[in-house]
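Subject: sequence -> structure tokens, single chain

Hey, anyone have a minute? Need the predicted structure for the following. Not urgent.
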Amino acid sequence: MTIKIILADDHQIVRRGLRTLLAGEPDMKVLAEADNGRTALQLVKKLHPDVIIMDISMPDLNGMEAARQIRDECPGVKVIALSMHSDSLFVLNMLKAGASGYLLKDCALEELVKAVRLVVKDKTYLSPGVSDIVIKDFISGWTSTGASAFSILSNREREVLQLLAEGQSTNQIAHTLCVSVKTVEAHRKAIMNKLGIRSIAELTKYAIRQGITFLEP
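Reply:
Had a minute. Here:
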């Protein structure tokens, strides 16, 4: 059986490197590449891969939101996060979003290949350093009910927040999300009310702190 893979990372050199490395595995085939989460989601719906290897730090739609939508809309596709971020905010929220694996970008090719082969068998793979974080947070009673963007805001509000923080106008966001301008304005108002924030500059700082976006507008 050939494992069909999509690569999603906003750095072309990373995607090319991964494609070249995975080309050497006889049971794996890279179907396509995406440079943001929204394109990744569209490719998953179109091509139906077995696995998507995805960065968290992507524009337009970050990896956590993309993973959540893939889980809800294409539940048979396994998501492996390949990220430079090792702290619990990213690891635990990515796993909660539906990722079956989480590896750090300094991992060896052999580890990534192992992870791919495991997740297609409905198993979970975490890099050793990542698994330590998960265990420690579990023991200390980590919970998603804390005051984070992932507990305070709805899924769509987080999408709108990311696009606002990345400098898109209300009209651009409406076009991107295929909703009306009034709907975007209502989401923006709800976000500001929930967070107690009144300026786009402060919203941007909040979005960066929470891992909603990694880009300065």
